[in-house]
Specification:
mainly alpha
């Protein structure tokens, strides 16, 4: 290829040095066509060489897949399936434990309108049962505090209706207060 390069450079240089005029453009077109033909011949040779080089590699690749990579991939897939099954079981066990704890603790606080799903607690492999229970307790303790605050308000029942929808005491109080102000304004 390095030997051919000098000849190709010379040939291309000659072609590019041609001046294109009305009188010479047909000759220049012929030179261009000859260059294209030469290039196509080189491309055919390159493709033939690539094919000749690729065939042994493709045969190697096939044997390699059969003897090595397919075996590893199969083992990896089987192990992944087994690990996923165990992790799913462990997560289900954690979920059951924290849900039971949540329900019992909610009952002890006389909270009967909220489910575990509304807590937003994520059960995964990284969090312990103890931490999940702590999160459930903190969630329910906040609701209990909110309920105590709501029960001390003038329109507690109405605020509670709003609170049960959003679990946001400030928002519930604001909505009810604004509603009563609007009603009072209409009555005046």
């Amino acid at each position: 290829l390095h030997e051919i390069k000098a000849k190709v450079e010379e040939r291309v240089s000659q072609a590019l040095s041609l001046i294109v005029t009305e009188d010479t453009y047909k000759d220049v077109k012929k030179v261009r066509a000859d260059l294209s033909k030469e290039f196509k011949e080189f491309e055919e040779q390159r493709k033939a060489i690539k094919k000749a080089i690729s065939e042994p590699y493709e045969q190697f690749e096939k044997v390699y897949s059969e003897c090595v990579s397919d075996l590893y991939k199969n083992a990896d897939n089987q192990m992944k399936t087994r690990i996923t099954a165990i992790e799913d079981d462990l997560k289900a066990e954690k979920l059951k434990d924290v849900t039971e704890y949540f329900d019992e603790y909610a009952q002890s606080l006389n909270i009967d309108f909220v489910t575990f799903e509304r807590s937003g607690i994520k059960v995964d492999m990284t969090v312990s049962k103890k931490k999940l229970r702590e999160q459930a307790k903190a969630f329910l303790d906040k609701i209990s505090e909110d309920l105590n605050m709501i029960n001390s308000q003038e329109n507690a029942a109405e605020i509670l209706v709003e609170y049960k929808q959003s679990l946001n005491a400030v928002s519930a109080l604001t909505i009810v207060t604004a509603r009563h102000k609007a009603i009072q304004k209409e009555e005046d």
